[in-house]
Amino acid sequence: MSDQEKKALQAHVKPGPGHLEDALRRLEKAVETMQLGVTITDIAGKIVYTNSAEARIHGYTVDELVGRDVSVFCLPGYRRSLSSEQVRRMKSWRRESMNVRKDGTLLPVALMSDVVLDARDQPIGVVTTCEDLTEAKRAEAERERLQIRMQQSQKLESLAVLAGGVAHDFNNVLTRILGHASLILSELPPPASHVLDKVAEIQNGALRLAQLTNQLLAFAGNGRYKTEPVNVNDIVKELTHLIEVAQGRRVRLQYELGSELPVIIADPVQLQQVFRHLVTNASEAIGEDEGVITIRTGTKWASREYLATTYLGDDAPQGKYVFLEVKDTGCGMDPETKAKIFDPFFTTKFTGRGLGLAAVMGIVRGHGGVIRVDSVPDQGTSVLTLFPARPAFVTQPVEVGR
Ligand SMILES: Nc1ncnc2c1ncn2[C@@H]1O[C@H](COP(=O)(O)OP(=O)(O)OP(=O)(O)O)[C@@H](O)[C@H]1O
Ligand SMILES: [Mg+2]
């Protein structure tokens, strides 16, 4: 290094008395260009210096801050000023905290403070750096959300394997019970009417169990699907009459059916089940009160971002979907309930079996669809099922069952 270079470097890091102002200006410029906020307060907590980053992070200009008490960054109720005695006893400290911006919004920050000493080692103030953690916190929340979703879908996957296995064995036994019951009925001599009733009871019980088993199979995705091009509006129209009779007068049904829906490739019988379960839940959520159930169909372009807010949306391709929504003005759900609604046998109802939405989930999954649930306690719930739209020219039935 030449002498000239050495001198220049020395002047930069260790200025002689004549260069003090220059050095201070350089220091200020360096602090000004930092992304970290920097604030210096006097011993009483009054801001004597703050850089642009600190002001920007908190939504102020530098001029608005200089001269104010540092508690301007604190949440109301957390505004405690340290006595100069307390500051004297502190050396340096770091902490995560929640500051408040000028507009009142919260600002998560990491703070590092040090006491500033004068030439005789007496504390004259505090210097604090402030890192805006908004983005880091958002990323952390997103990671947690993804992890919960993954755990949920893994849980549902293993439950589906279990439910499918049990339901399959159940079905075999039930078929035998029903077969033998009808054999007994056909072989009994005519005067045995007292036995007839009992055998009919066995048959009814076995049929009820078969229904339950079918719902479990639907949840497991093992249901046999007989698919064809389907217009979702037809599914709604076919069931309208039945549903209106069942609802009685207290619940008003409102239809908002989209026009010119593309077809979807689906098993109409399974879709009817989905629709029935959703309307039944909506009606039960309204209970004995008056309320409205809105049934909507339509076409929606679902982006990656939108699909990320749905169940089963992780692997679904973005694109055009046909939706069937059932929305009610019923009791709604809190987040804890909402997290469990697709678990088989989860129910909050006295007579419920907790299999309706499990079956809905299985059927929608079997059709390559996704589900979105929005619910607010005491206000109502919307369950939206979305199925991939197919080009209108598809008319050949396609088998997608497993
Ligand atoms: N529209 C809704 N409004 C409020 N809560 C709902 C709604 N739909 C479902 N739930 C909640 O989700 C739970 C599970 O619903 P699911 O349909 O799977 O079972 P269930 O209705 O309790 O019983 P099942 O359908 O087998 O008769 C319900 O018990 C209820 O707590
Ligand atoms: Mg139900």
Describe the structure.
This protein is α+β, with helices and mostly antiparallel strands and 402 residues long. It has 3 domains: 99 residues, PAS domain (Beta-Lactamase); 82 residues, Helix Hairpins (Orthogonal Bundle); 161 residues, Histidine kinase-like ATPase, C-terminal domain (Heat Shock Protein 90), CATH 3.30.565. It is 44% helix and 23% strand. The protein is built from 12 helices and 12 strands. The strands form 3 sheets. It has a 5-stranded antiparallel beta sheet. It starts with a helix and ends in a 14-residue tail after the last strand. The relative contact order is 0.08. The site of magnesium ion (MG) has 5 residues, from helix 9.
Shape: elongated
H/E series = HHEEHHHEEEHHEHEEHEHEHHEE
Which small compounds were modeled alongside the protein? adenosine-5'-triphosphate, magnesium ion
- The CATH topology name of the largest domain reads Heat Shock Protein 90
* CATH domain class name of the largest domain: Alpha Beta
How do the strands of the widest beta sheet line up side by side? 2-1-5-4-3
Binned strand content: 15-25%
Quick overview:
It is built from twelve helices and twelve strands. The protein is an alpha+beta fold and 402 residues long.
Labels describing this entry:
402 residues; Heat Shock Protein 90; 3 domains; 5-stranded mixed β-sheet; binds magnesium ion
